[in-house]
């Protein structure tokens, strides 16, 4: 179990990156959903002991993470939003080097690297240079290095951003496989990743936890309050002043708006809520803007 209590971090200029965040995260996949600049990466780096918080605490399996960073790092697998690799170095050689840094050498290290290459579907590309990999292959390599040593806490930060649909699906399947027995935090602004993988989630914005729960519970709470309407684009500004418009989308050349109201607005029809609607509505309630792929 990972416990985060009253965690705060302020950057120069008085910008709150984290504002009194508290979370308890059990084993399994946990989604941290929020727009760019919400504080997700700052929170991930802080949990991973890559930067210090101004106040608050993080404990994992009873260990005070800030007091014993080395102990946390021994059981941590971390895939940052961006990572580099040595040029002209094969995936197998790079993984072997990283495994040796964690104490896996000789036959043990060789078997570990081979198993990880197979698990992440990179065996056939093991002799290719990592810096020549496609975006999806690099992300699979990233999760391979994060799995060295059978970590009990895995953090993946924006892992599917920029991937094509096929690569995104492969990566989602890989995360689902490893996320059953250990704590896996999936930090992303992509709603579909969280909806498909995570039984629990938190929406973060402006450095604060805005909402948390299970996707099904959060979606169900919106039943009977979500409405849709097709409009001309020039009508949008006027409707925003009189209704709580949470999102717009273009459908077959027409603009569809989705709005929240306790009773059915004129000229609107009921809409079946999805997690994306919960996300938009939560950010709108706090005066924030979403960014989606």
Describe this structure in words.
It is built from ten helices and 14 strands. The chain has 293 residues and is an alpha/beta fold. The protein has two domains: 2-214, P-loop containing nucleotide triphosphate hydrolases (Rossmann fold, 3-Layer(aba) Sandwich), CATH 3.40.50; 224-272. The strands form three sheets. A six-stranded mixed beta sheet has the order 6-7-8-3-9-10, sandwiched between helices. Strands 2-1-4-5 form a four-stranded antiparallel beta sheet. Strands 12-13-11-14 form a four-stranded antiparallel beta sheet. The mean pLDDT is 91.
Mean pLDDT: 91
**Low-pLDDT sequence parts:** none
The major sheet is characterized as: 6 strands, mixed
Per DSSP, the total helix count is 10
- Euclidean distance between termini CA atoms: 31 Å
Helix/strand order, N-terminal first: EEEHEEHEHHHEHEHEEHEHEEEH
| Global structural class | alpha/beta
- The radius of gyration over CA amounts to 21 Å
Write out the strand line-up for the largest beta sheet, numbering strands in chain order: 6-7-8-3-9-10
Strand percent estimate:
25-35%
CATH top level of the largest domain is Alpha Beta
What's the name of the CATH homologous superfamily of the largest domain?
P-loop containing nucleotide triphosphate hydrolases
| Strand element count | 14
